[in-house]
């Protein structure tokens, strides 16, 4: 998807569609964005293999990043970037603050790592691949899908692996076996302490041989909730001026089909 000038716009268009849908369905909602900082995070220092398998973004996508920042700026909502941390850590930190204040909040993400913070009054709207409907996850739905508590997900992913982050996991250990170990014993340290009681017994040696890798995988998969973010930062509800700026940007990007949806939003 390109403008008449040849500028790629498919990614920013997809994000705009999602934002308009959210603003329509949640009138008056306040928004804050979290963005990855350039240069990686503390996880890359812990493990050089972390996300190392991911190919570089194609140029039509990277060329849209400045437009992404323009869209965020036009809406007037804060955009948090914290060097040394990932956007997921920022969202987890903000969610913890919202939970402490008992404020109902919804995280919108395409990364299942955020399921770790899906506890009342926080839920997670998981946006999958194109053409798939978003799925709303609360604490119960996460437990039903993975078989463990939300706080135990990093241990589960250390055991079964997480290909998206290049966390290897254990050969021969599937989700059901891993979830049973986590439910019975808890975190990696407790699983290692109980290795002589693990079932099936044939996997005990595999667990012992991978003890350091398991501990590292659990740490890599655990979201930080202590990112240094300005305590005064607050989500913002886009007002008439913000929507007018966004309309101007849509005109520049030739998103003519989105203008009626934008103008229909409450002001």
Structure commentary:
This protein is mainly α. The chain folds into two domains: 10-146 and 224-263, Rossmann fold, CATH 3.40.50; 150-221, DNA polymerase, domain 1, CATH 1.10.150. 44% of the residues lie in helices and 6% in strands. It has 13 helices and five strands. The strands form two sheets. It has a three-stranded mixed beta sheet with strand order 3-4-5. α7 crosses α8 and α7 (153-160) packs across α11 (211-221). The chain is elongated and about 65 Å long. The protein starts with 9 loop residues before the first helix and ends with a helix.
Structure summary, number of beta strands: 5
What's the domain count? 2
For the biggest β-sheet, the strand order reads 3-4-5
Question: What is the multimeric organization of the chains shown?
Answer: single chain
């Amino acid at each position: 998807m390109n403008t008449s000038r040849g500028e790629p716009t498919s990614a920013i268009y997809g994000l705009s569609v999602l934002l308009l849908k959210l603003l329509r369905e949640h009138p008056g909602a306040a928004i804050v964005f979290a963005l990855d900082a350039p240069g990686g995070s503390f996880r890359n220092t812990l493990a050089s293999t972390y996300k190392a398998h991911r190919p570089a973004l194609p140029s039509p996508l990277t060329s849209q990043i400045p437009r992404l920042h323009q869209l965020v700026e036009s809406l007037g909502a804060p955009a948090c970037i914290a060097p040394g941390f990932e956007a997921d850590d920022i969202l987890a930190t903000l969610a913890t603050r919202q939970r402490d204040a008992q404020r109902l909040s919804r995280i919108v993400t395409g990364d299942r790592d955020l399921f770790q913070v899906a506890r009342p009054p926080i839920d997670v709207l998981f946006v999958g691949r194109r053409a798939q409907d978003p799925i709303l996850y609360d604490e119960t739905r996460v437990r039903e899908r993975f078989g463990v508590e939300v706080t135990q997900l990093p241990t589960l992913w250390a055991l079964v692996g997480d290909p998206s982050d290049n966390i290897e996991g254990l050969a021969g250990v599937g989700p059901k076996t891993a979830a049973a170990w986590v439910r019975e014993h808890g975190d990696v340290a407790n699983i290692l302490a109980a290795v002589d009681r693990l079932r099936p017994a044939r996997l005990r040696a595999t667990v012992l041989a991978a003890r350091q890798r398991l501990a590292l995988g659990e740490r890599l998969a655990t979201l930080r909730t202590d990112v240094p973010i300005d305590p005064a930062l607050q989500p913002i509800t886009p007002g008439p001026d913000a929507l007018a700026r966004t309309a101007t940007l849509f005109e520049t990007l030739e998103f003519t089909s989105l203008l009626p949806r934008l103008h229909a939003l409450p002001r």
